[in-house]
Amino acid sequence: MLEGVVMSLRQTMEQLIGPVDRDAPIVLIGGGTSSGAWCQMAADVWGVSVHVPEQAEYLPAMGAASLGFVHLGWCENLETFNERVIKHRPKHVYDPCSAATQIYEQRYGKFLQLYVKDE
């Protein structure tokens, strides 16, 4: 089941921004990041390093708060907020396992045949 969720996320990312850049890590936030197995599966399915900042489960709320910080003038813009508050948090890195990535790549092809995107 988790495999399908991660593949669906990959499909959505590819539809919105194009193919995953294998050289750029993906930062995961939210409660799901408390599962190391889920984060590792994401790295394997996406074929890219996954970074999970310290206290990642609270960062969605921080993202919402960032708009208030900018509005109140506490930060110049969202980029400044990111630099000051989020970017430098220590993180756990999940690197993809090449053997698992190869298997997931084959399964992803089958997934795309089953779940054709609407155009």
Characterize the structure shown.
With 119 residues, this protein is mainly α. Helix content is 55%, strand content 8%. It contains five helices and three strands; from the N terminus they run αβαβααβα. It has helices at residues 2-17, 36-46, 59-71, 78-86, 98-114; strands spanning 26-27, 50-53, 91-94. It has a three-stranded mixed sheet with strand order 1-2-3. Helix 1 (2-17) crosses helix 2 (36-46) and helix 2 crosses helix 5 (98-114). The longest helix is centred in the C-terminal third of the chain and has 17 residues, at 98-114. The two termini are 26 Å apart. The model has no long low-confidence stretch (mean pLDDT 88).
Q: Please bin the fraction of helical residues.
A: 55-70%
Let me know the number of strands.
Answer: 3
Instruction: List the total number of helices.
Output: 5
Q: How would you write the strand order of the largest sheet? A: 1-2-3
**Main sheet characteristics:** 3 strands, mixed
Order of secondary-structure elements? HEHEHHEH
Question: What class would the helix/strand composition place it in?
Answer: mainly alpha
Mean pLDDT: 88
Name the quaternary structure: single chain
Kindly, what is the distance between the CA atoms of the first and last residues, rounded to a whole number of angstroms? Answer: 26 Å
The coarse silhouette is elongated
- Report the β-strand fraction as a percent range: 5-15%
